[in-house]
Amino acid sequence: MSLAEQIFRYAFAERPDGALAVMVAETEVVLRPSGALWLERERTLVVADLHLEKGSSYARRGQMLPPYDTRETLGRLEAEARGTAAAAIVLLGDTFHDGEAETRLAGEDAARLTALAGGRELVWVVGNHDEDGPAALPGQVLAGLSLAGLSLIHEPSAGPARAEVAGHLHPCARVVGKSASVRRRCFVTDGERLILPAFGAYAGGLNILDPAFGPLLARPPLTAALGRGRVHPVGWRSLRPD
What we know:
Blueprint: H1 3-8, E1 12-14, E2 20-24, E3 27-31, E4 37-39, E5 44-47, H2 54-60, H3 69-84, E6 88-92, H4 101-104, H5 107-116, E7 121-125, E8 140-142, E9 145-147, E10 150-152, E11 164-166, E12 171-176, E13 181-189, E14 193-195, E15 206-207, E16 222-226, E17 231-234
Parallel strand pairs: 5-6, 6-7, 7-8, 10-11, 11-14, 12-15
Antiparallel strand pairs: 1-2, 2-3, 3-4, 4-5, 9-10, 12-13, 13-14, 13-16, 16-17
Helix pairs in contact: 3-5
């Protein structure tokens, strides 16, 4: 199967802003270069796995990382909210890196999260790292929600699933060219379900050829790799393990 045949078995369209519009089940969604999902008709921005305060969590265990991950992640989220004029933001689980991360937020960063809820709906879907949700920040805390014909949850359900959008696995793609290889965070969809990349600065990623992804996909998927200002559609046979 050629690269074109791998890619064009999926309905997608490249947009002038570098985003990629794809069909998941019967719903068109927009995959943005930042790693955010945009539900245009609902004016809803969806981001997964921010892992805020991961840097401070590592520091408490003696592994010193630059303590700027929360600031950088929130800056990108604010830019997405402004750029889309989002009426709602869904945080799709593992927004905080651990159960005490909210208490370690700098006052300025807590104020920025509060401001994100100003004039729009803010929804915290809980994940395995933040299963109780925030204690003092605004917004609605849910285990999952249905929106635009899609089921939005943190951790993918077992086996192939129709119309499901999830995070949790932090998918990344490695592609090898003639003289070099690149590894990028990515969206992955088999046309039925969609798995989002991690949005957090320190979140890391799992190669989508890892066995964890296999049982979740009904067919060889479309990979949408995050480039500089553009989402790149990548065929399954172009991918390489780490």
